[in-house]
Each structure stands twice: as C-alpha cells, then as structure tokens.
C-alpha cells in the first residue's frame, strides 16, 4: 500500500494551480499582441513577446517557464514552512474560518460585479463615478477595523454578523494615529535616505525598515483594538505576542497572504508593461495606417485606464477578509479574552 501525505499533495496541487495562473495570465496578455509586428524587430507576428528577449535575454516561452517554476517553488516553500512555523494549523484554521462565510463571498462577488460593470460605463459618466468610488472605498476601508476586530465576532465558532461595528475606545484610536505618523516619517525617509547613504543601500534599508514597522505596527494596533485595551495594557499584550511561539504563526499567515497577493501582482505587472512599452507603439502604428487596434487591446486599454479606481471595490472586501482571518488568529493566540472585550 502506497502511503501518500495528503497535506503535501494539497500543497502540490495548490502550487501547480498558482503557477499556472501566474504564467497563464502573463501569457494571455502577451498573446493579445500576437497579430502585431515585433515591438523591437517589427517582424510579423512577434508582438510584445520580444520584450522578454530585451529584458532577460531569453525567449518568451523560456521566461514564462521560469515564471511558472518560480511561482511553483514559492508556494511549495511556504507550504513547507507551515509545518515549522504553524505546526498546530492555527493560521490555516483562521483563514478557513473566514473563507466559510457565504456572506463575505457574496460581498466580494457584488464588489467584483460592480467593478466589471464600471469598465463599460460611458465616458461621460465615468468622471463623477470615479470620485464616488474613491470616496466610498476610503470610507469602507476606514470601517474595516471596526467590523473585523470585534472580539465577540472573532470568538464565534462560525463567522456571522461581521457587519456589526465595534468601538474599541479612544486609546486604540490614538495609537492608530501615532503609528500612521511614524509610518509617514518612514515613507518620507524613503525619498531622503538614498541621497544620504547611497541610492541602493539607502533605498533597501529604509524599505526594509518600512516593512518591519508595517507588520509590527499592524500587530500592535490589532492587539490593542481587539482587547479594547489602554495603551499600557495593549503594549503588554503586544510584547506577549512577540514570543517566538506566537510570532512565528503570525509571520506564516502574513507570508500566505503575500503569496495570495502575488497572484494579482503577476497580471497587473504584465498589463503595466504592455501599457508602457507596447500599446503606445501599436497605437501610433494604427494612426499611421498600419494594423488597427484589436478589440482585446482596446479592452486592455480601457481596463488599465480605470483599474486603479475599480480595483478598490473588491480590494476593500479582501481587506476585510484578511483582517478577519488575522483577528481570528490573534484570538487563537489568547488575545481578546479580557472581560471588557466581550
């Protein structure tokens, strides 16, 4: 009888699906330029596939295969780290607890449908709609902590009534403002540091500091918010979470969310590359009497022009989902069990 590690098999399948998505979407976007001459050589049928030769010194097929292998290995590494960093499956259980909420999936579906509908909105209506979407997304994003970090909601066996708001008290709010102020200083330093200590070392140092502070600042705010704590008691709970046995679980969940975000990053980066290097050239070619712009490229141009705004709609729901999963994990780790947080 052959023994099969089911957990390893699931990660293997997930890695294959993830890699196929990343490489497949990149290939699909490149394929929209197949009917055009090469962007560098102007040879027929080469399209933007020549960009990989200029950037990486290899054919597009080899570059896409490399992307597939890289994405596959990233997921397998994260899956392997799960046994080391999350041996009790607390982080995964928190994520699955969130994913089982049908109402959250419904909210995401509605937000995505509205975003897709916005692509086809007439131009005369888009100006006002764009401002309205940005304001609505800002208000919704501001409400996310009030919805997601309610200890009463996070302790339920099944996620429900997540739309009930939760007031943490003024001290956690002041803590949020303090963390935002420090984050603003670090962001400003990103522009100053390269001038002071060299472009590459300064940029790398300040960005690393920004990432570390973002993680720790979020953790401090979440702990104080869920416990409705004073700054002093919230700090003590925060120090307790920094114990390696707890911190490693939070780090692994953070890695998992970064990998999920990568599935969006791959097509977005490829679309941005086409918008910068390929489409302007093909638009100029069409104006001079060459190959007219095909409908896939027209759709790509329209999506790209509105993507930054329309993506805010599903992004807010995803932000809520990740915040709920992170809050659930903190509850698993003992945060939020104070009497006043009930």
Q: Mind telling me the C-alpha Rg?
A: 23 Å
Mean pLDDT comes to: 84
Looking at the structure, what is the overall shape?
Answer: globular
| Overall strand count | 0
Helix content: over 70%
Unreliable stretches: 338-342
Q: What gap, in angstroms, lies between the N and C termini?
A: 51 Å
SSE series = HHHHHHHHHHHHH
User: How much of the sequence is in beta strands?
Assistant: under 5%
The main β sheet shows up as: none
Number of domains: 2
> Structural class, from secondary structure content?
mainly alpha
Question: Number of helical runs?
Answer: 13
Task: Outline the structure in words.
With 342 residues, the protein is an all-alpha fold. The chain folds into two domains: 85 residues, no CATH class; 205 residues, no CATH class. Helix content is 78%, strand content 0%. Helix 5 packs across helix 12.
Features:
single chain, mainly alpha, 13 helices, disordered C terminus, 2 domains, 342 residues
Q: What's this entry about, in short?
A:
The chain is mostly helical and about 350 residues long. Helices cover about 80% and strands about 0% of the residues. The longest helix has about 45 residues, at about 245-285.
SSE layout:
Blueprint: H1 6-31, H2 50-56, H3 60-85, H4 90-99, H5 102-119, H6 123-148, H7 151-154, H8 170-197, H9 199-227, H10 231-241, H11 244-287, H12 295-310, H13 312-332
């Amino acid at each position: 009888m052959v023994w099969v590690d089911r957990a390893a098999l699931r990660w293997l399948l997930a890695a294959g699906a993830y890699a196929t998505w990343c490489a497949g979407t990149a290939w699909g976007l490149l394929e929209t330029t197949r009917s055009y001459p090469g962007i560098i050589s102007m040879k027929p049928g080469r399209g933007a596939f020549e960009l990989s030769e200029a950037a990486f010194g290899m054919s597009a097929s080899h570059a896409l295969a490399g992307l597939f292998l890289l994405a596959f290995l990233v997921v397998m590494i994260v899956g392997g780290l799960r046994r080391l960093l999350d041996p009790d499956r607390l982080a995964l259980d928190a994520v699955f607890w969130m994913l089982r909420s049908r109402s959250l999936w419904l909210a995401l579906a509605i937000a995505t449908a509205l975003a897709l509908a916005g692509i086809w909105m007439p131009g005369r209506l888009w100006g006002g709609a764009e401002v309205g979407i940005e304001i609505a997304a800002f208000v919704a994003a501001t409400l996310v902590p009030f919805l997601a970090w309610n200890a009463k909601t996070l302790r339920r066996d099944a996620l429900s009534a997540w739309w009930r708001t939760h007031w943490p008290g003024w001290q956690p709010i002041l803590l949020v403002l303090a963390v935002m102020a420090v984050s603003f200083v670090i962001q400003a330093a990103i522009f100053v540091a390269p001038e002071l200590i060299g472009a590459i070392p300064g940029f790398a140092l300040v960005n690393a500091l920004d990432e570390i502070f973002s993680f720790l600042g979020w953790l401090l705010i979440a702990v104080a918010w869920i416990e409705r704590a004073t700054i002093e008691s919230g700090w003590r709970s925060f120090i307790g979470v920094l114990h390696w046995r707890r911190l490693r679980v939070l780090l692994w969940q953070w890695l998992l969310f970064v990998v999920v975000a990568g599935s969006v990053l791959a097509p977005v980066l490829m679309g941005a590359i086409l918008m910068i290097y390929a489409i302007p050239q093909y638009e100029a070619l069409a104006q001079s009497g060459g190959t007219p712009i095909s409908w896939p490229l027209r759709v790509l141009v329209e999506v790209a022009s509105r993507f930054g705004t329309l993506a805010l709609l599903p992004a807010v729901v995803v932000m809520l989902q990740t915040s709920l999963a992170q809050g659930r994990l903190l509850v698993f780790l003992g945060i939020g069990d104070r009497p006043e947080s009930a």
